[in-house]
Amino acid sequence: MKTSVNFKSINALAIPATIAGIAEPLLSITDTAIVGNIPVDGLESLAAAGIVGSFLSMLIWILGQTRSAISAIISQYLGAGRLEEVKTLPAQSIYLNIALSILVLLSTIFVIQEIFELLNAKGKILQYCISYYSIRVWGFPLTLFVFAVMGIFRGLQNTYWPMVIAITGAVLNVIFDFAFVYGIEGFIPAMYLDGAAYASLLAQAIMAIMAFYLLWTKTDISLKLKLPMHPELGRLIIMSLNLFVRAIALNTALILAVREATALGDKYIGAHTIAINLWLFSAFFIDGYGAAGNIMGGRLLGEKNYDELWLLVKKITKYGLLVSVVIMALATIFYKPLGSLFSNESLVLSAFYGIFYIIILGLPVNTIAFVLDGVFKGLGEMKYLRNTLLVATFLGFVPMLFLGKYLNWGLTGIWLSFTVWMFIRGAALVWKFRNKFKPLLQNP
User: Fold this and answer.
1) What is the pTM of this model?
2) Quick one: pLDDT at residue 25?
3) CA-CA distance, 30 to 277, in Å (whole number)?
4) What would you measure as the largest C-alpha separation in the chain, in angstroms?
């Protein structure tokens, strides 16, 4: 029997999704690498970029969840052959997203110092955090708009245009970083850390313009707000709220890790910044197969094709694990050079090398969690994803983090906590998928 779930169809979605997915962490990695080598206050700038980057990632992940919700709904309607029925929903979801992002922007811009003091930033690092965030935060609504448009394209089984947007943004960000951070003699003054913030903001603005243009010219989706509200908007909001809570739990872990690393001292937050950027880069790299599972899984659920859905999950998990093995091999070979890309401070590098092996060994566990996470989003299982993250964070990550602190394990304790966190997430998703969908197979 011929199947639509094959190597070619999966990778046609997964490879562009992987390239698009790594754009955001690549943007942060670029900032980290360039900022870490600033000739004036490089260590303090690196620490500030890490703290602000973690906080901004938290905000983006929390409010960017409508991308997954709109992608799931569109792909399910596409699979059921009822796409015309949801033509007005994307515009309504985008306007909702932008309104929320502006509300968050305005609610944080006046309490920046208090926010970063809670994250243990002090002295010069605190001042750099305030300056860096004051610029980068204005790109927040732009990023959420781009995320929403990418979700629409994904629901339509198209990852090519999101890839084009992401590549353009990443390349421009690198160019702008070098120009604004170090300056161009006689043309642009060196702005150091503030220059990195302006580079990111400009790249985000260009990505938003591209997203608007491509949605307008490459799809039949209109951005004109039409009333009445679509009946599926309620389901989209509920799905998004479940993902909001999930993202808060997820970012509780990330922020607690930053806070504990900051409390250890400047060299440790610098090392943690390098580690978390590499961890996120590998996560988004592997998550390309999660995106394929999201996109194809929603469509197959709409078709009620459970045999193909089961086959899809088996194949994307296998492909994801193969990718993780390749990343493990490369990370092991380039163990030392990877660290030196981000900093020339021997103390920072020593702390980083002491925990990098934990990240490498945890990649297969991460793969299972990320791949199934994408599948569950496509299936609309947002409530279960929420509950899984709450359990993994508050019964796994947090107890392990404070055990490590009590035993004075330093950064090692923080990264062992991430390993426990990911194991619980992956195991819970494997258990749920097998129990829910194996009984529905016609050919088990």
Assistant:
1) 0.81
2) 63
3) 10
4) 71
